[in-house]
Structures are given as structure tokens and as C-alpha cells.
Amino acid sequence: MSGLKPSNVIIIHPDLGIGGAERLIIDVALALQNRGHRVAVYTSHRDKTHCFEEARDGTLDVRVRGNTIFPAHIFGRFHILMASLRQLHLTATLLTELGSRGSSTVKDKAAPGEEDQDDIFIVDQLPACVPILKTFGQPRKSHRQRILFYCHFPDQLLARRNEGGSLLRLAKILYRFPFDWFEGWAMSASDRVVANSKFSRGVVRDVFGTNKLGDVQVVYPCVDTNSEADAPQKEPEGALWDGKKILLSINRFERKKDMGLAIRAYNGLGAGKRKGTRLVIAGGYDNRIQENVQYHQELDNLAKDLGLRTATTKTVVSALSIPDDIDILFLLSVPTTFKNTLLAQSKLLLYTPINEHFGIVPVEAMLAGLPVLASNTGGPLETVVEGETGWLRDAHAVKEWTAVMDKVLYGMSQKEVDRMAAAGKARARREFSLTAMGDRLEEEISTMLFAERRPFRGWQQVFIALAVLGSILAVAVALLLRRF
């Protein structure tokens, strides 16, 4: 432990839904709050019916700001523009609150001796607010102020640019260009940058270079080893679905997660070996997000085209009452308690994304004693140990995935199963606990506090860019006027 004194920690996150990024930032808040820091989470969206328990039950101080002027999107488009504008609106409100409350944003009144605590801003996913905080969020003389950016993955690599015709692709490239430049520029205003995995750190260095962001370190996401996932689960009326052997896939319903791989590999078992088994595809689903709706339908169509019977449910009650002959169950936005039950009673977790930035679900599975079959790329290379806590296979080799399923269902002794379960639990507790994450966060915050603030003189670049853009527009207007 670093011995870091308690600070005011202000976390800024775009949308507190249900997903790996949201689970990570909730755990960041919990890890620091458990160590005596005063934590507030600022977000532009929180639906109390579609978020983690800690974000709605009072465990964390969550404040919704920046959601009254700009919508989340315009006709399903311009998500990054609207997200940036919403975050800037949030930041303006936050800075107003900072000024009016003498920097004590976490509680209406600071307790005696707390008014001189340092301010730590932790920003993740979207860095639009960082230059504003750096420039206008000036610390008082009696304390320090620093900004830590927790990078999951460069946003510019997540944007889809190759969809549609040539004109649409060109429009997307032109639209994204200023945001791609802005991302690196805004991140460079932070005092320290950390990444969620060695894989992500390598990508960040490749995209932004080593000079702009300084010494990027890794702070792994975590699982709470004191949570229900690490405790014996109460089985609802005995084993799930009369003791069927469950193969489990948990991910958001996004195409890049490639849950279709799990369906194709499961189909490869054949009707005989599928008897007495069920594939459960569970995860984050939001009706507001068009891709979630479309991809769920695509997966359902894929399964039916292969001759597999499917069902879709949104509640635990309906999930438990599906007919016995259903091969694949789609469970939309699975509640945490039921997810833990699924992890405890399944035979194998199928983690299908390629080049996943980190991937918290494999760690959750290992903590529950569930072996993992994952793509041999990205974050799982740092979490899953081949042959010890699971298996790593090429995501394009469907037959290899089917072979591992077959082995787990029919080819492993109970001794082998127990050995792998124990190894997974031990690794999760040792490397990916809430305590380990808290230690690393405090180390990075301490390093940041005792170093000089990173200089930021980037505003002239914005002014130059605006001047160039203004000149181009002026020339364009002049040419149009001469033409007409």
C-alpha cells in the first residue's frame, strides 16, 4: 500500500449502463472509497432499471449532469459528437459546483480537516473534458489537483469506417478526422494515463506515441473476491433446468463480440451430444442501442438457420420456465445475482471476442471456479492460463472450440475439473482482486501527486485549427459568391 492520504476523488464516466467499462469504473470507485477517499461519480446517463446495484442503491454517490441540453445521438448518428458535448456540459456544471462549494463536491459540507484534501479527477473512455479541467479547474493553494485518464482503448480504433458506399465511407473519414486528432490532444492534458491491460497499453503507444502521454502503466480491472461470485450459490429449486449441462457466453450484444462463434461451435457438437445441454447467451442489452436489438435478432436467426431451438427472456422467472427442448437461451441484461448463479452452475465459459481490450468476464468465471475458453488474442492472453484455468483458441477455428466443449462436457474427470476450478479461483484472488486494484490505483495516484503537473500548452493548436478551418470556409464562400 502507498500510504496515500484521503483525497476528494471525482470520477467522470459517460453512461452508467451495464457492461465491462461500467463495471470497471464502479470498481474503481469502490476500491478508492473503501480506502477512505471521498468519491463522487459524475455521469450523463444513469437508468436505475439498467445499471449495477452500487450505482443505484446508495453505495456510491452518483450524480447525473450534462443530460439536459444535448441528446445522446441524432437519429442514431453522431454519437461521439453528442457524447463529447454532453461531457463538456457535465464539466461546466461540475466546475460550477467546485467553485460554489469550495472544491468539496463529494458531500455538501466537508468534515473538519477534509477541506484541504487533494482533488483527484479520474476520467475514462472519453477525454473531452480533460483540457477543460486542466485549464479551468484550478486548485486552491492549500491542496493539489491532478487528472488521471484511465484508457480502455483508443476510441478512434472502435469507430466503424468501412460500412456503406464509397461516399458514405469518405464522409465518415472526414467526420472522424477531427475527433481522432482531438482524442490524443485531449488525453495529453491529463497528468497521468493508465491502461486496462498490457495489450491496450501497446495499442495506445502505437496510436499516440510514447512522448505525448508519458509513462503509461497498467491497472487491471478487478472482481470483488468478497462478492456472491465467490460464495456458494443458492440454487433456485435445485439445479438449473433440471441439471442440464450449461455452456455460458456473457457479453454485450454487439457484433464485435462475435457470440455467433459460440452458436456455431455448439451446433458442431451434433444433436446427440447436445442432448441434456443448453447454451445460454447472456449479457448487456439496451433497447436504446440499435445494434443491440439488431445483433440479438441476427444471432437468433443464425441459431434457427442451424436448426437450433431458441428462446429469449428478460427476467429470471421467465428464464427458469423455458421449455426443456430449447437449445439456446438468450438472456437480455442478466441481473448480477443470476449471473453469479449461472457462473456457479455452468460447465464452461465461452469468451468469443477477438482482441478484447481486457475482458472482465473470464476473471469473474475463474473466481467462480468455471474454466474459460477464450480467443487467443488481446486481454485473455493476460488472464487465462492455457491448460490451467482454461483454454485459448483461434476464434476462426470453430472445430477447435467444439472440441474443447466436447472435452469439458464428456472428457474430463471430476479431479481435473476440481483442479482447474481451484487454479482459476487462486489466480483471480491473487492477480485481479479489488484489493490489488486499489493498491495499483493508489500507487499511480501517489506517483502523480508527487510529480510536477504535466504542462499543457495545447490550446494554440485548437486556435490554429480553427483559423485554418475559418480560412478554408471563407475561401469556399468567396468562390461560391463569384460563381453566382
TrEMBL record:
Glycosyltransferase subfamily 4-like N-terminal domain segment(s): 141-226
EC number: 2.4.1.132, 2.4.1.257
InterPro entries for this protein: ALG2 (IPR027054), Glyco_trans_1 (IPR001296), Glyco_trans_4-like_N (IPR028098)
Transmembrane segments: 462-481
Short name of one Pfam family: Glyco_transf_4
Keywords: Endoplasmic reticulum, Glycosyltransferase, Membrane, Transferase, Transmembrane, Transmembrane helix
Glycosyl transferase family domain ranges (all copies): 240-425
Keyword hit for Transport: no
Localisation: Endoplasmic reticulum membrane
GO molecular-function terms, A-Z: GDP-Man:Man(1)GlcNAc(2)-PP-Dol alpha-1,3-mannosyltransferase activity; GDP-Man:Man(2)GlcNAc(2)-PP-Dol alpha-1,6-mannosyltransferase activity
Family of the protein in this entry: Belongs to the glycosyltransferase group 1 family.
Name under which the protein is recorded: Alpha-1,3/1,6-mannosyltransferase ALG2
